[in-house]
Design goal:
Strand content: 5-15%
Distance between the termini: 22 Å
Shape: globular
Number of strands: 3
Number of helices: 3
Radius of gyration: 13 Å
Largest sheet: 3 strands, parallel
Helix content: 25-40%
Length: 97
């Protein structure tokens, strides 16, 4: 598994903060992570209750993940509506480029 440097988990509606932590714990040598999510794929039943923090990848998840994946060079968080500038600050502060 140590040869795995790139992981693509894009377009997964079920991906949450605790998954990011599990990925970081299992693959601390990861260099690229694609977790983008296109709004095009959202369910028509996506309501305001589904948008609560427990249903999204958020700044908090990105912050924890970035502290564990110090060698992360590239990440795609396009469409992750729970992420803000706070995620970018955490990534640029914690991940060595």
């Amino acid at each position: 598994m140590k040869n795995l440097k790139i992981l693509r988990c894009c377009l997964l509606e079920c991906l949450r903060n605790h998954h990011l932590v599990a990925i970081a714990d299992a693959l601390p040598w990861l260099e690229e992570l694609d977790i983008h999510f296109s709004c095009y794929y959202w369910s028509t039943e996506w309501d305001s209750n589904s948008r609560s923090a427990k249903y999204l990848i958020t700044d908090a998840g990105i912050e924890v993940m970035s502290r564990k994946l110090r060698g992360l060079r590239k990440i795609d968080i396009t469409g992750q509506v729970g992420c803000s500038d706070r995620s970018l600050i955490a990534l640029s502060s914690n991940c060595v480029l």
